């Protein structure tokens, strides 16, 4: 409890001091930055790109479009933002005047920003550098319309890691619309990521596997090609990840593929079946014609069924690692004609470092091992990285946003995991980071993930351990245009809610399990026994998050409103966890009191029975509160879903809301029957016969106030 209160005090301190933070706290934070003067933009902005090629012209247009969306006028006489190649006379002049240079490590993607004429100049050697400099320029501008200002600065900046990406789960539930994927591309590019990797189990359409993709829930080849072309403008390479070994349950459920399944209707292709390799080759041959980048991702993680079915004898004889890696070698050999470097998840191979070291040179040259782990590791991440770097293999690291199976992502876990894993990857010579979002139970909304996605991009670009506190101070201003610090404080309130549960509940944070569990059930009652002391504090954190977001929205026309809607939704869902358990205790207490008073000879006490029943079940009864809560959340969730996703899978989630609303409606009817019994003969049935649990202990402690 003390730790939670200290954390909250810190949150409030940050909120109060946010307006004092320097406007030059950026995402990612540049390598070298020195603040200069602040320039009012009341006369508009002139984005100059004389002699630019098509890619630099696009960067200028993208910057112009962003500023226009903020109401900042484009004017030939306005403050100038010049985009210059370092090879041009103008670029050389700016560098010379500022005594700056583009060193060798800056050539590929680095840039310089310096004062020039009546504004700033962005100087770089490549289109990528120009583009990333323009993204930084966006963040140097605060405010909107004629009140906007440019915080001029001298900056030298370049990335720590060559590959900086996002792995996006498109198979465990929601499938984004093409328009939302374009938004994802624009957004991650604005924070200097250069990889987008859609994850497919069965949601990419293949002509070779016509049974695989669900109607309305798959990416077509035409859509993929359009996205590839769109992403190229933003210097984003798309790496399709198609599971090629495990995670193929939706394919193997079809009877036609039964012989290829390690176990009946399982998840893993049987390596001993020749057709298994053909399925993989056919899919990746199609992918190679659609996605022209230098990489393909074969997945091959969590092959837990391997050796439990068709290949049991082989695994018993040679060992799991040998069988796994032999099949991986066959995949690599089969896909060699595609002339792509193949990424694969490292979670199986890492357990056999000697076998990894003994892999043939051709295999090592053709692959990149992606080490993944999604939780903080106080002892470090060497266990995941070292088996590959020690074998001389190229390695990327894959931390996680910790959004899966939660009503809102647990950013406590995310920060420590992303920061430390990425920094250790840099120290170990890993060339890339692939931050991950997963939708394991099919409920996660991507618009809740931006806090973790942006920090992941910052951690990959910045050298070493990207300071968490700096990011938390910058996020609300940079992403939402919130100068008050209230959005940042709201994020910390939701982190505090997760921390409260994790610290005291041990096995869970604000999970979907807690959100959906029936508090009247035996399992729900077990959870309640542990949660009871913390319910009030949990709700206060969630409610303060809503208040802070609403207050921030009232002060300015903030950006990324859909993400704020989902943030509020997450806070409401956390609040509802506390409310349903509190109301369960109150209903149980009210009914127990009514039952004990029904035979009282005291008329006043006798009259209280009807009042107690009315508190439970009436126009504003506690059962109605529970019905209303889930009904409202149903509507808010559906609205949020449709802003990002196709209708596919939505019914699986909304049906849970419907079922829960129906459960409380049924209980309303059941208690109403008891109320009629009281009216007719002044008796009521036992609580157990109505499903109402026993009341809580009389001295149940409550958490201290905030």
The coarse overall form would be globular
- End-to-end C-alpha gap: 10 Å
The count of domains is 3
Task: Give the averaged pLDDT, no decimals.
Answer: 94
Question: Strand-residue fraction?
Answer: 5-15%
- The whole-angstrom Rg is 29 Å
Helix count?
25
β-strand number: 16
Task: Supply the CATH superfamily name of the largest domain.
Answer: Glycosidases
- Structural class estimated from helices and strands: alpha/beta
CATH level-3 fold name of the largest domain: TIM Barrel
**Largest sheet geometry:** 9 strands, parallel
Q: What is the CATH C level class of the largest domain, in words? A: Alpha Beta
Helix content: 40-55%
CATH A-level architecture of the largest domain: Alpha-Beta Barrel
Regions with pLDDT < 50 over 5+ consecutive residues?
A: 1-23
Written description of the protein model:
With 706 residues, this protein is an alpha/beta fold. The protein folds into three domains: 32-157, Chitobiase, domain 2, CATH 3.30.379.10; 163-466, Alpha-Beta Barrel (TIM Barrel), CATH 3.20.20.80; 490-690, Four Helix Bundle (Hemerythrin (Met), subunit A), CATH 1.20.120. 49% of the residues lie in helices and 12% in strands. The protein has 25 helices and 16 strands. The strands form two sheets. Strands 8, 9, 10, 11, 12, 13, 14, 15 and 16 form a nine-stranded parallel beta sheet that branches. β8, α5 and β9 (195-200) form a beta-alpha-beta unit. α2 runs parallel beside α4, α9 packs across α10 (320-335) and α21 packs antiparallel against α23. The termini are close together. Mean pLDDT is 94; it is low at 1-23.
């Amino acid at each position: 409890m003390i730790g939670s209160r200290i954390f909250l005090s810190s949150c409030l301190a940050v909120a109060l001091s946010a307006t004092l933070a320097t406007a030059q706290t950026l995402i990612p934070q540049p390598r070298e930055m020195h603040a200069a003067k602040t320039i009012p933009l009341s006369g508009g902005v002139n984005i100059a790109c004389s002699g630019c090629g098509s890619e630099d012209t696009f960067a200028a247009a993208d910057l112009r479009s962003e500023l226009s969306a903020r109401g900042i006028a484009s004017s030939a006489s306005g403050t100038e933002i010049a985009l210059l190649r370092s090879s041009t006379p103008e670029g050389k002049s700016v560098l010379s005047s500022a005594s700056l240079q583009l060193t060798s490590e800056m050539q590929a993607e680095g840039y310089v920003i310096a004062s020039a004429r009546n504004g700033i100049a962005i100087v770089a050697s490549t289109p990528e550098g120009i583009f990333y400099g323009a993204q930084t320029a966006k963040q140097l501008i605060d405010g909107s319309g004629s009140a906007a200002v440019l915080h001029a600065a001298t900056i030298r900046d370049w990335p720590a890691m060559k590959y900086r990406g996002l792995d996006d789960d498109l198979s465990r539930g929601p499938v984004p619309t093409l328009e939302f994927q374009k938004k994802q591309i624009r957004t991650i590019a604005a924070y200097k990521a250069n990889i987008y990797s859609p994850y497919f189990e069965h949601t990419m359409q293949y002509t070779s596997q016509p049974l695989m993709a669900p109607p309305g829930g798959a990416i077509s080849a035409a859509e993929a090609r359009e996205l590839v072309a769109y992403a190229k403008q933003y210097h984003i390479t798309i790496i399709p990840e198609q599971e090629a070994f495990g995670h193929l349950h939706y394919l193997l459920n079809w009877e036609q593929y039964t012989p290829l399944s390690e176990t009946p209707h399982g998840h893993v292709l049987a390596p001993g079946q020749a057709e298994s390799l053909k399925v993989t080759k056919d899919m990746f041959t199609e992918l190679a014609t659609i996605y022209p980048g230098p990489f393909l991702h074969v997945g091959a993680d969590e092959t837990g069924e391997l050796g439990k079915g068709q290949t049991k004898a082989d695994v018993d004889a040679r060992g799991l690692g040998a069988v796994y890696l032999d099949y991986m070698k066959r995949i690599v050999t089969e896909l060699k004609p595609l002339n792509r470097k193949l990424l694969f998840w490292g979670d199986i191979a890492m357990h056999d470092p000697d076998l990894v070291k003994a892999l043939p040179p051709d295999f090592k040259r053709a692959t990149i091992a992606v080490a993944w782990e999604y939780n903080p590791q106080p002892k470090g991440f060497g266990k995941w990285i070292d088996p590959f770097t020690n074998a001389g293999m190229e390695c990327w690291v894959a931390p996680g946003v910790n959004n899966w199976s939660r009503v809102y992502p647990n950013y406590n876990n995310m920060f420590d995991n992303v920061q430390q894993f990425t920094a250790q990857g840099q120290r170990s010579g890993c060339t890339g980071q692939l931050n991950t979002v997963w939708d394991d139970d099919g409920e996660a909304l991507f618009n809740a993930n931006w806090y973790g996605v942006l920090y992941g991009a910052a951690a990959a670009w910045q050298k070493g351990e990207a300071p968490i506190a700096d990011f938390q101070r910058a996020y609300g201003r940079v992403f939402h245009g919130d100068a008050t610090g209230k959005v940042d404080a709201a994020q910390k309130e939701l982190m505090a809610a997760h921390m409260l549960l994790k610290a005291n509940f041990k096995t869970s944070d604000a999970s979907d399990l807690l959100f959906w569990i029936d508090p009247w059930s035996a399992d729900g009652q077990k959870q309640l026994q542990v949660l009871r002391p913390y319910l009030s504090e949990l709700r206060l954190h969630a409610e303060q998050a809503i208040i802070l977001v609403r207050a921030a929205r009232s002060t300015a026309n903030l950006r990324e409103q859909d993400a704020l809607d989902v943030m509020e939704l997450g806070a409401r869902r956390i609040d509802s966890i506390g409310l349903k358990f509190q109301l369960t205790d109150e209903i149980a207490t009210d009914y127990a009191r009514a039952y004990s008073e029904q035979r009282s000879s005291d008329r006043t006490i006798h009259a209280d029975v009807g009042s107690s029943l009315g508190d439970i079940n009436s126009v504003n009864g506690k059962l109605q509160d529970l019905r209303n809560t889930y009904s409202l959340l149903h509507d808010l969730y559906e609205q949020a879903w449709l802003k990002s996703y196709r209708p596919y899978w939505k019914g699986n989630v909304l049906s849970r809301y419907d079922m829960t609303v129906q459960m409380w409606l049924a209980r309303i009817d059941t208690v109403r029957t008891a109320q009629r019994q009281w009216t007719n003969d002044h008796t009521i049935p036992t609580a157990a016969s109505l499903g109402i649990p026993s009341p809580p202990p009389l001295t149940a402690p409550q958490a201290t106030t905030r």
